[in-house]
Amino acid sequence: MIFLKRQLPLAITFVVGVIFAVQYYVPHPISEEAITHAADTMKIVAAFALLLGIASLFHVHALKIKRQVPGWGYSFVLYLAMFVMIVIGFWSGGENKVDGAQTGFGWMYEFMMVPLQATMFSILAFFIASAAYRAFRARSREAAVLLAAAIIVMMGRVPLGQFLLPWTWDLTQWLLNVINSAVRRAILIGISMGAVALSVKIILGYERSYLGGGKDQ
Amino acid sequence: MNVVAFLCLLFFSGVAFAAPPSLAPPEGFRVLDTPNDTGKSLSLVWKASPSDSKNRSIQVWAVESPHAAFKKVAEFPSNTRYVKAGDFPWWAQPAGKGEHYVKLSSSQAFPIEDGKSYAVKLLVREGDQEAWSEIAEGRPAPNFFNQAQVNNLVFVLAFTGVLLASIAAARRNPHIYLRRIAGLDAVEEAIGRSTEMGRPILYLTGSGGMDDVSTIAATVILGEVAKKVAHYETSLKVPHRNPIVMAVCQEIVKEAYIEAGRPDAYKDDSNFFITSDQFSYTAAVDGIMLREKPAANFFMGSYFAEALLLTETGASTGAIQIAGTDSDHQLPFFVTTCDYTLIGEELYAASAYLSREPVLVGTLRGQDFGKAFIMSVLVFGTALATIGVIAGTENYFNYVLDLFKDFK
Hints:
The structure holds two protein chains of two kinds.
Chain A: H1 2-23, H2 29-67, H3 72-91, E1 97-98, E2 101-102, H4 104-135, H5 141-157, H6 159-164, H7 167-203
Chain B: H1 2-18, E1 30-33, E2 41-46, E3 57-63, E4 71-77, E5 100-105, E6 118-126, E7 129-132, E8 136-138, H2 150-172, H3 182-197, E9 201-204, H4 213-232, E10 236-240, H5 243-259, E11 271-273, H6 278-292, E12 296-300, H7 306-316, E13 320-325, H8 331-337, E14 340-343, H9 345-355, H10 358-391, H11 394-401
Parallel strand pairs in B: 9-10, 9-12, 10-11, 12-13, 13-14
Antiparallel strand pairs in B: 1-2, 2-5, 3-4, 3-6, 6-7, 6-8
């Protein structure tokens, strides 16, 4: 049992990890085929895993309806929406359009799903405003610097600001190209080294808590 | 008579001098198998000429079979396509500096397959004048190793060696200093607060799959958080966008509860799938935040536009929020809306920091050596490049600078 749960996954991780690390340096078509094949395999595994996800979704919401926990009505709406979408999806053959005419499935996607997604995305504008208001309150020295930089960049980025304070354009470019880029690159270097270190730990089996358990068992 | 002959000679020699010079064909033309490729391209190289100009064009004519007709596959001004410093590393140069270099890649119009022989010739044109080069032949072949990336491989192997040495050192001497990471120190506080308030803890693993390193880091931290949650007997909720990540997290949380000695407190539905759609998932998680009002929200892993929608909603409920991401474009939103943010590499260091396992902590020291090396290279490289420009000796310094460049 310990072999299937611990040693076999670690062996697979090591072999596959080394193969795909080496693959980066091999331009031969065999190498390209291997990565394409692996990507296809992952897609197949993901498709089967979706069944797990749907089972989890049904289970969680079925329990909510059964126990009538507060907000169970939303779970009922989820079941109803899913049922209607599946039935109309099958009825439309899974196609958005047939002979140029929109199917019921396509209509539901275009006039229900897309507007709902757009609504969520559009809320971002208001959330940015409220988050900016909180961040730019000059309560500390750092927040004051942030506020000053934000005002300069905003003025340098909008036509009215450039008209009123032309020097903000150059200062904005300097802030973005020098200060901002330098910090961003420093963060990216740290991220890259951390990612390589974590990958080495996983490939060599030092980090195994993602298998569950953490310490050697 | 002699005078007439002299005048005739003078006239015709004048005509001869006034005639435009004929075009010379490209010199040193050769066709090579492109190094470090998949075998689906050819490299054309010829010497630069002082008479190269934008008015003079070069046409590339190629054919697969010797019996078929040549086909024009490319055309460009003759004063372009020179080999410049930085195009190739000095240890893998198909052509010398100042030569013309054209990579003829496989296309629908002219497919190139490895193993087949191709004949290529160049046509130089200027006005009505034309000159053909000699026909050169080449056979593309795939390569098993990209020599241009040998520096990358050496650095990866060296860095791996440093990591292994650091791990070995950490095993001998486990007392390694770790600088405090406020966000990770606050994990205990956040879980304690949730316990006191009797509210759940919400943990998100981001939008990536298990092939994303940041998601793996997020799942590793989840294990450490779940152990503390099990200890405090607090409720844990982990909504997922990816069913594979969900399956992995279920196992991790279950094992964490067993390790904490509370297998009875484990709930199978603490990890649950919502949807893989970005904004539908965001709406559902926002709903959970507003209805169930978790006392602590963890945002680990990679995020996109949903980051602010999630964290701003969480902030409005008064929850203590801890974020950790390598999505540098979302960092400002996390810093603004969360109480603590693990920036980039801190996310990867979290498992070592929380578990204090000497082996894991040792890799952090290895990373520090790597960063020290990169900083030294940045200073050294900047100094060399500056001196090179001032002294006009950048060609010599390029030999050193090439070692640190990323060639494809």
